[in-house]
Amino acid sequence: MTLDILTPEKKLYSGEATLVQLPGVEGSFEILNHHAPIISALKDGVVRYKTSEGEKRIHITGGFAECLNNKVIVCVEGGKPE
Question: Could you tell me the pTM of the whole model?
């Protein structure tokens, strides 16, 4: 699936991912290939995603995520790679 992680200032990641784990306000959840459409608010925590280069993590202070047609867009505040 395609993953874009964006802040108001810059793009933190854009590319392919096999898994995205997000800190939703109702609890942590994962998105895999061909996930059902979803929009969720995010809370302070860590976004974890897996690419062909391995697992990566970004600490966020909140935001929103949308998954539609095998594309995940994550708009975050305060994104810092760990």
Answer: 0.91
